[in-house]
Amino acid sequence: MFNGGCYMSQQRADTGTLVAVHGAGLAYGAHSVLDDVSLTLEPGRITTLIGPNGAGKSTLARLVLGLARPDRGRVERRPGLRVGYMPQHLQVDESLPLTVDRFLWLAAPGRTRARRDALQRTGVAHLRRRAVRGLSGGEMQRVLLARALLRKPDLLVLDEPAQGVDVAGQDALYGLLGQVRDETGCGILLISHDLHLVMARTDQVVCLHHHVCCSGTPEAVSRDPAYHRLFGPSGGMPNLAVYTHDHDHDHDLSGDPHHDHHGHTGGHHHD
Ligand SMILES: Nc1ncnc2c1ncn2[C@@H]1O[C@H](COP(=O)(O)OP(=O)(O)OP(=O)(O)O)[C@@H](O)[C@H]1O
């Protein structure tokens, strides 16, 4: 729901924006986690949110999902927005003999066909009757993506989906997400703490360290000599790209932009 009144709701509904965060600030006690953060998510566009541990990425995702409210600024959401969320961690009770099919049904009760189609789309239809607790990290990730897709989301939010997956698995996942975007036209918000390697088809990269440090588009891995050496001349990982940061400031350890007595920036540079 939009917080900006009728006029703003109408304006946003017309332009199709899924979620718009305007100058959001949020603090836990004295600890400022987000400071004047703005972000716009559009249908059919992939946004990658990167930043070091503790930068506020998951907190910003919670604002986008409507699970938290900013102390300052506002968050507008398209009326009736359907969101599919793939969490960073999921606790599955090891003692429960839960099958993949049952696991999906619990999230979205409905026809078997829909669950089969969702698993088919993420390339793991063969796992439908398997126990969730026996799945590998990469298999679980695809099941979680199928679960998010069952909601037929306008916006897919994935928190660190590449965590615990090797580079080839990350490349395959990003390829799959590109297909999902092309087929469904949904917007995608991807969260990652990898400051350099991002999904090649990302439309905008936003680097967060409590505030937005910089944003832009990634460059193909094949154009970066370091990754060229790693992946070979053909750029064997077509779905990965390099993001080059463009900061005009450094950070001290609290994440605050830092200037020395002479007006020069100093502190911990995180790119
Ligand atoms: N409910 C809470 N109460 C107090 N502090 C919190 C709460 N949630 C998050 N924080 C703090 O806010 C900061 C940002 O956390 P957040 O999880 O948003 O960062 P992140 O960028 O997603 O980090 P990571 O990459 O490690 O997952 C951290 O210092 C965290 O300890």
Automatic annotation (TrEMBL):
ABC transporter domain mapped to chain residues: 19-234
Gene3D superfamilies xrefs: P-loop containing nucleotide triphosphate hydrolases (3.40.50.300)
Disordered: annotated span: 241-271
Biased composition (Basic residues): 260-271
Biased composition (Basic and acidic residues): 244-259
Taxonomic superkingdom: Bacteria
InterPro entries in the cross-refs: AAA+_ATPase, ABC_transporter-like_ATP-bd, ABC_transporter-like_CS, Metal_Ion_Import_ABC, P-loop_NTPase
Keyword terms of this UniProt record: ATP-binding, Cell membrane, Ion transport, Membrane, Nucleotide-binding, Translocase, Transport, Zinc, Zinc transport
NCBIfam families named among the record's database cross-references: PRK09544.1 (NF007090)
UniProt protein name: Zinc transport protein ATPase
Organism: Alloalcanivorax venustensis ISO4
Taxonomic placement: Bacteria, Pseudomonadati, Pseudomonadota, Gammaproteobacteria, Oceanospirillales
